[in-house]
């Protein structure tokens, strides 16, 4: 038996409802929506085109978009629908300024040894003025302009206080709103570094009479810092040096103290093990013949 199926229900397309949005909201399909497609066919090709109408001040509407959706079935049949997207302007009072980063409204920012101050306190980090969930100048047809000026005060080390003066201008009315945002970038973290836990030194004859106390491996510190090496034979400011341990065998504490420019400090202790025995020695010379494998 042969069964032949012809025809079939063509695709049907239902556009998202018309949208009235603020002019700074996105108009992409992920935000506005896509049509609902029904029918017998799979693999329907969906596309759209936009026709724009832009208005000038003082019109309260910034733009209108007529979005035409077209669905093409595998057999070539087409159906379409239209959606109207209207963007309206908003008053200056609708704009909200970013909150302070002063330890009250938001935590202070930490200085960074890999980012400069501009990068650490950039508005992408500390916030831009917003109208709703989006910047008021996200769409040029909203007719808003945003600017800021930073007044920077150095505190200690790589710590700063920033007074960011914001200006938001409504280009339709020439009205300007201003606000000052306080941003603190502080060095509150002590220096982070590594040292070996143990260094060995031999008093045995034939060994050198000095031992090298290694320099620190600095891992993190955004400010300048002072270095102090505390040993039983005196204190030193050099980071890595030779010392002459004029003493007997035993275990001795060597303290590494790092203090940054904001008075954050870290101390780590290295143990210097001094012994009367030879720690490392080469084997004695030997003579071999060609039948000896090594």
Number of helices: 3
Largest sheet: 5 strands, mixed
Summarize model confidence as the mean pLDDT: 90
Ranges with pLDDT <50 over ≥5 residues? 1-8
What does this structure look like?
With 294 residues, the protein is mostly beta strands. Helices cover 4% and strands 45% of the residues. The chain has helices spanning 29-32, 117-120, 123-126; strands at residues 12-14, 19-22, 36-38, 45-54, 61-72, 78-88, 95-96, 109-110, 130-131, 144-154, 160-170, 175-186, 192-194, 198-202, 211-213, 217-220, 225-231, 234-236, 241-243, 250-260, 265-275. The strands form 7 sheets. Strands 14-21-20-17-18 form a 5-stranded mixed β-sheet, with no helix packed on it. Strands 2-6-5-4 form a 4-stranded mixed β-sheet, with no helix packed on it. A 4-stranded mixed β-sheet has the order 8-12-11-10, with no helix packed on it. Strand 5 and strand 6 form a beta hairpin. The termini are far apart.
What key attributes describe this structure?
294 residues; mainly beta; five-stranded mixed beta sheet; four-stranded mixed beta sheet; 3 helices
Q: What is the secondary structure topology, with strand pairs?
A:
Elements: E1 12-14, E2 19-22, H1 29-32, E3 36-38, E4 45-54, E5 61-72, E6 78-88, E7 95-96, E8 109-110, H2 117-120, H3 123-126, E9 130-131, E10 144-154, E11 160-170, E12 175-186, E13 192-194, E14 198-202, E15 211-213, E16 217-220, E17 225-231, E18 234-236, E19 241-243, E20 250-260, E21 265-275
Parallel strand pairs: 2-6, 8-12, 14-21
Antiparallel strand pairs: 1-3, 4-5, 5-6, 7-9, 10-11, 11-12, 13-16, 15-19, 17-18, 17-20, 20-21
């Amino acid at each position: 038996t042969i069964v032949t199926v012809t025809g079939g229900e063509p695709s049907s397309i239902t556009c998202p409802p018309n949208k009235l949005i603020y002019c700074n909201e996105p108009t992409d399909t992920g935000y506005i929506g896509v049509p609902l497609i029904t029918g017998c066919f799979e693999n329907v090709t969906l596309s759209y085109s936009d026709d724009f109408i832009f208005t000038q001040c003082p019109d309260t509407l910034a733009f209108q978009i007529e979005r035409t959706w077209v669905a093409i079935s595998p057999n070539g049949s087409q159906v379409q629908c239209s959606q109207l997207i209207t963007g309206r302007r908003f008053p200056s009072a609708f704009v909200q300024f970013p909150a302070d980063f002063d330890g009250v409204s938001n935590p202070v920012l930490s200085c960074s040894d890999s980012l400069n101050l501009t990068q650490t306190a950039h508005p992408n980090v500390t916030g831009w003025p917003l109208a709703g969930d989006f910047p008021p100048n996200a769409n040029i047809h909203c007719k808003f302009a945003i600017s800021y000026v930073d007044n920077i005060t150095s505190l200690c080390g790589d710590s700063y206080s920033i007074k960011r003066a914001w200006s938001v201008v409504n280009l339709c009315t020439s009205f300007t709103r201003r606000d000052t945002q306080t941003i603190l970038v502080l060095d509150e973290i002590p220096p982070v570094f590594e040292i070996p836990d143990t260094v060995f030194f031999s008093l045995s004859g034939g060994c050198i009479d000095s031992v090298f106390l290694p320099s620190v491996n600095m891992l993190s510190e955004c400010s300048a810092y002072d270095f102090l090496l505390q040993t039983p034979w005196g204190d030193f400011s050099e980071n890595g040096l030779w010392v002459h341990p004029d003493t007997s065998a035993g275990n001795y504490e060597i303290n590494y103290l790092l203090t940054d420019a904001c008075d954050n400090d870290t101390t780590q202790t290295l143990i210097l093990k001094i012994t009367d025995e030879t720690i490392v020695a080469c084997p004695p010379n030997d003579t071999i013949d060609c039948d000896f494998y090594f």
